[in-house]
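Entry 14. Ran structure prediction on the chain below.
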Amino acid sequence: MSPQFPQRLAALAVLTSLASVTSFAAGLPVVTEAPLRAHLAFLADDMLEGRGTGQRGGALAVRYLETQAAAIGLLPANGGQYRQAINMLGQSTLPTSALRFSAGAKTLAPVPGRDVVFGNGNGQAATRFDAPIVFVGYGIVDDGEKWNDFAGVDVKGKLIIAMVNDPQPTAAEPNRFGGKSLTYPGRWTYKFEEAVRQGAAGILLIHTTASASYPWSVPQNSFSREQFHIAGAGNALQGWISEDMARTLFTSAGQDLDQLRAAAEVRGFKPVALNASVNASIDSQVRQIEEFNVAGIVPGTDPALKSEAVIYSAHWDHLGIDPGNGKSDHIWNGAIDNASGAAALLAMAQVAVRQPARRTQIFLWPCAEEQGLIGALGYVRSPLWPLDKTVADLNLDSLNFVGTTRAIGVAGAERSTLYATSQQVAKAMGLRLAPAVPDLGGAYFRADHFNFAKAGIPAFNVGSAVFSGDGYFEFDKDPAGAKARMLAFTRDYHQESDEYRPEWDLSGMVQQAQFTLNLGYAVANGATRPTWKPGMAISKPVR
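Output, structure tokens:
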């Protein structure tokens, strides 16, 4: 329990007593479009320079959010302030950095950006080492799946090369590692973490568009920019290697990459030491920065339940500004991703303060989501409300901008009793839940709610309609045009073209925000708190 928690409850008591006179006869609070649109237009404006982590635009976004939270009437969640400081390191890999592979009789010099992208996660300005190379299959240790890609081999001080994704289902085991869905051990973040746990000198992931679910340009762009990490243990080298370069390296080392990939699909696979080594020279510009989550509270009214809280979350950051990108437009505005979610939370909070629920409600805007869910991770490590008193996290990220639908997406809710509650809320709104489909890209593990789930709190991302794909949603108006506009956003995702457009139909965004708020109230007013379904909890790192 936070040492400030008892004092905070006492401080909320006066407001709670006043709030208890609010009438619930009028029904649930109603989210309106005007404030949502105004917040969205401002947060996505060029003036905020893409709300980059560690950049001036990010500081402006934080100042705006805390000012709006105060004006709305949210109580500060962190003592007397709305900010929660998250300390992190910024690391930029300098052009003098290089990798050299010795493989068999050959020396290979991969071209940064084309053949490899890399940096470090240890906060060191200069990193130099030589290390043997080991292929570790998927690089996964999972006791539940009886899988250990490091069995019998000590990789301390070695460079490991791993495949992205997780072992594929077979006829004999159609549901292993989630079947067709990607599980957390398939994510690049897990593999970087596992390399640290194994004591490896570093890790490179073999990129294919099919296994990563995105093209080479995504890690290429990411590693060309400043990377951020929470201070602590990290890899001396971490990054990606193109499939062509990996194939050249393995062939030069006397190995067949395709044969090794096939072997790695079989339980009992053992790591393979290559006849190869790496010489790593990494020069980095490192800085310490203090970024901020923003959080405000609507205190609960029930004497027995107000010590428990429902969290609504939506990250405020995007990719910022890069005047040196060589383009006329050098601002990544992030209008949909995720000014839309941040704006929706403000619009929801504006009406929630007028009608408190039995449990406390927390509106949380995490920082640095685009840098690896850092703000949410910082929150669960130093929570502003006790985690054992936090009953759910409902996250909003990249909202619907093309009109209302007859279905709402709740992927991940099926892991807990939140799914049944979602069904009830949807029915009351005249909606149905979008059908479940395999999570091929591991979307459940790619947004801020996942850190709450790992901390044992039922959580999911509500209605990510933008990425729904084919057949999910039934639009009320111009279905073909709405679907085409939604799918076209995939070209704008993480591009400078993700900009606010006044002609957007935000009725679907309001609908999504309203569903989230209604669901939050159903949880906040419920007699019992949500629980995980058997075997579905993600309450600790996968080992």
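The mean pLDDT is 90. Will compare against last week's run tomorrow.
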